[in-house]
Amino acid sequence: MGIVLRGGAIVTSTDCYQADIRIEGEKIAAIGSQLAQAGDNVVPAEGYYIFPGGIDAHTHFDLPVSTISTADDFASGTRAAILGGTTTVIDYATQFKGETLRQGLDNWHRRAGGNCYTDYSFHMAITDWNEQVARELPWLSQEAGVTSVKLYMAYKHSMQLDDSALFQVLEGSLGCGILTCVHCENGDIVDNLTRQLRQQGKTAPAFHPLSRPPRVEQEAVNRLMILAEMTGAPVFVVHLSCREAMETVAEARLRGVRVFAETCPQYLVLDDSVYQDTTFACAGYVMSPPLRARENQAYLWNGLRIGILDTVATDHCSFNLLGQKDLGREDFSKIPNGAPGVEHRLGLLYTYGVKAGKLSLTQFVDKVATTPAKLFGLYPRKGTIAPGSDADLVLWDENSRFIIGAASHAHNVDYSAYEGIAQQGKAVHVFLRGRQVVKNGIATGDPLGKYLFRKPFLRSEV
Ligand code: URP
Ligand code: ZN
Ligand code: ZN
After folding, report:
1. Each residue of 69-86: b (16+ CB within 10 Å) or e?
2. Average pLDDT, the chain
3. In a domain, 448, yes or no
4. 149, 201, 202, 358: which has the fewest C-beta neighbours closer than 10 Å?
């Protein structure tokens, strides 16, 4: 007995066409017409787009930061994700100082195991690089199924790695099939600018963006491009936020650097005018990089359209305004960084990309599902609609309209970064490996998400 989704408009990264999808067990068995057999559960899908389940390759759930942890853990975060049409997340497992990679990864398995409503995998954030850790890279990629690492060029005094470590990780990644993701901001300059602002008494959250201007991001991207060029290692720039950084990526690509880049809905839809708010509420927008001047948005949308930017992820990292963000009430540099968004990624990109004529439907699917799957070793199991792929499917009602806000979102956090913003289109029914996990916009059932071992990074996939 199977499930047949009848008559939806299937959208992949290359095509849009009307057909039935037959699901058997966890997989797509066939695509065609009149696929129903006796005893099948036939789901009428006429009038819906059917997208492959979204892949959010940048989340931080249950992340400890100083004395607190993110407001969303794996249960609330992945439940919000699935309601928004994301069926796989790749979270940043973190090796804290003094730990091995194995200890860091075990820690994240404990946090996520049995709690996820989406399928999930991990990148490994390395914050303490040494010879022993270097020897763990082949294990990480070949046995643990973690084929990407993350390095921070920012957050001096906590997670920042110096150039020597950066260079050595890139060299070590070669031959292991590891893609190195990098947070590009010059943490030393951020540290100096922050100190200067503090000395001038500029400690309110509105001053956060002045401590991390676009040049700080561009300088770090440029340094990374040169290190990638010298080592020959592939790199992935996370949460790219501004024109200057994107132009640096484009130039590097033209001269043959193996670089890929991600942006996030917040940089496409929100801008730095939020920092004009003189109340503490603008702490909700203390994220790194910060929101940028509105002029940047056209460049980022064009970058997505012409392929300088490869993927859109949320960098979901939620902290409550009350009791968490307000740890920095007297000093913006003590505000835990990050913002919520995992539920809204598809909706914002659909509304302000596809409906606004900035992205085609196929490009939309490419950025939210297909290219993340290819870059991070999940394709074609995930990221497409094809026989043999996991039946991760989103039935999308393009006529649904609503206003995003904290009163109705599924995030477990006391504010919305997108409060009052309109969304068009909604994930009405969602299937995860053949099980219906969202029905009429409501999450049904238990956390069924499985850990995904990922394939090594292969240049030929992208
Ligand atoms: O402000 C941000 N982006 N917080 C999350 C951690 C990171 O830098 O990705
Ligand atoms: Zn980051
Ligand atoms: Zn992040």
Report:
1. bbbbbbbbbbbbbbbbbb
2. 97
3. no
4. 201
